[in-house]
Design a protein that fits this description.
heterodimer, A: about 110 residues, alpha/beta, TIM Barrel, five-stranded mixed β-sheet, 2 helices, 5 strands, B: about 200 residues, 7 helices
């Protein structure tokens, strides 16, 4: 499947244009027949789409949330956008971590 | 040849063409809401085994990784050795291009024994390329990519192809009474045709 990466508000433009952009991307994925999930995080969802945007819900959801100490627990994550806490399927619990000489982000299923 | 035979042949050919098109793009006929539900359904069906396995293991075992640069066989092999189960390389990057390392990363992930492989797509909202053009470029870049399954649904496998062939025809022809409940039928079939989904 393909995970659509929604992050990094500096890569995006205005909330209105961003909403329309992501909806168009999903339409194009649909036309190609791909199985799609969304990679999201609370802070940047609000920056990119605005706190009131409830669109694009229902897809498998991979949420980024780093914490100290590291936690893989999804039950403590706040709801945002179209998501309730129970809607998160996968949690990215670290970013840019050195592993085996490479650089990775780590994730676990909720 | 009798006109009736010719007529039936033409109709059958048309129906077959429709079925092939629908099978290549199995989600194209779904509403946006149904597309989300379809993706969730396939996700749950296909990821269930890895979710259970992941939850049974403690520490890093059963978890997974995503990467945005070239990772060699040796590096990825070490990751598998540490118990990571799935790998999600970047396939499209925020500069608006297919990631030049994605095919090598997919190959290496497969070779070293990652059980599950997906890809991720970082779009470029500021690019002059339209969303559709970016997805088309991604599709072209990943066309024929081995070791990752981006979609399900095909008429080219027996015996499921026969089921899918007729079901798609049923779904696509509204006047048929069976089409009043296309969604469960579609989902059931997609669940049945989940071969090879990484």
């Amino acid at each position: 499947m393909v995970w659509l990466d929604i992050e990094g508000s500096s890569y995006w433009t205005t909330p209105a244009a961003n909403r329309s952009f992501v909806e168009e991307i999903l339409k194009a994925f649909k036309a190609h027949g791909y199985v799609v999930g969304l990679y999201v995080n609370h802070t940047q969802w609000v920056e990119i789409f605005g706190a009131d945007y409830k669109g694009c819900g229902g897809f498998p959801t991979w949420v980024a949330k780093y914490s100290t100490p590291v936690s893989k627990d999804c039950s403590t994550l706040s709801p945002f956008g179209p998501y309730a806490t129970k809607d998160f399927n996968l949690r990215q619990y670290t970013g840019t971590t050195a592993l085996c000489g490479g650089s990775v982000d780590q994730s676990a299923y909720c | 040849m009798q006109p009736r035979v010719i007529f039936i042949t033409i109709v059958a050919a048309l129906l077959f063409a429709v079925a092939v098109t629908a099978a290549i793009h199995p989600t194209a006929h779904l509403s946006d809401a149904d597309y989300a539900e379809y993706s969730m359904h396939i996700f749950k069906e296909n990821h269930q085994a890895r979710i259970e396995e992941s939850k049974m293991k403690s520490g890093s075992g059963g978890d997974g990784l995503d990467i945005s640069s070239l990772h060699s066989e040796m590096t990825q092999s070490c990751m598998v050795g540490k118990g990571y189960q799935f790998m999600i390389p970047r396939a499209y990057q925020s500069s608006g291009h297919v990631d030049p390392n994605v095919l090598a990363n997919l190959r290496n992930a497969h070779t070293v024994g990652f059980k599950y492989v997906d890809v991720y797509f970082f779009p470029c909202p500021k690019c002059s390329k339209s969303p559709a053009a970016q997805v088309a470029e991604f599709a072209q870049g990943l066309a024929g990519a081995k070791y990752v399954c981006l979609f399900v649904g095909s008429v080219f496998l027996f015996p499921r192809k026969i089921i899918l062939f007729f079901s798609i025809i049923i779904i696509l022809i509204p006047p048929l009474p069976l089409s009043v409940h296309p969604k469960p039928l579609t989902f059931h079939l997609f669940a049945q045709v989940r071969y090879g989904l990484a």
